[in-house]
Amino acid sequence: MNPEAARSSRNRRGRIAVLLLLLLIALLVYWQRPRPGRTTLTYRIGTVDPRFGLGRAEVAEAVQSAVALWRRPVGRVLFRESPRGDIVINLVYDQRQAGLDQLRTLDQGILAAKDSIDTLRARYEELKADYERNRDALSGDSAAYNQQVAAFNAESEALRARGGATEADVRRLASGRDGLNGTLAALKGREQDLEARRGALEAAREAVNRVVAGQNAQVATYQATAGALTEEFDEGEYVRRLGRETINVYSFASPQVLVRVLAHELGHALGIPHGRDARAIMYPRMLTDSLELAPEDVAAIKAVCGIP
Q: Does the predicted TM-score (pTM) go above 0.70?
């Protein structure tokens, strides 16, 4: 064998030896890796963004609640928290939770606006009823005044036609005229008061319209924000890469939803794929916040654990 062929043969044997060594290492890693459902998996709490408003103890409690969901059907300890746990659980704040927080704020604003609108409308109805009551009363009294004026004028004309008035007639007519003048002054005062009431009524209506317009704007913003979130909305994910396991939670609307998101991702850590039952924890979309395993979930965890 010539030197070149010998060198090529040695190189080939060397590459084969390296490949065999790598294969051996991979097999050792594989056999030493915890078996989901057969051995206890360990986890630890990693990063918790303070913008979620939860402390690490509260997150740990939520994880324990999620872990308990999978433990109950099989009666086994499937997960254990450890300072050096293999699965790192993070709460990562991004545009998804920011969108949820905005929706929550908008929802509160819409409810507050509704309460304000209800109060303003009630006040408007009170002012409207008061205005209409005073308007109708003024209209009736004005009509009565006009009848009194017509009667006074008719009596005065009759006296003139008769050829003059006695002293008693003059005193009576003067008293009647004074009475009519007083009534007219009172009616004018009531007209001014009615105009002020009409102004207050108009101001109340404008206030209602302003708040309604503001509420409509909030509703439009709410709908646009909600629409943007539903286009692509992943509350969490389980990632296994280069031997490292991570659960990242990106958004949750309530503590109960957080537990359900964690239970879903822990299910993936156990090796359970997405299910088809919309009620199931492992369904790919969050259609309910129930914290009960569906029959499909129970069957899946029993299969993972080798329980018939």
A: no
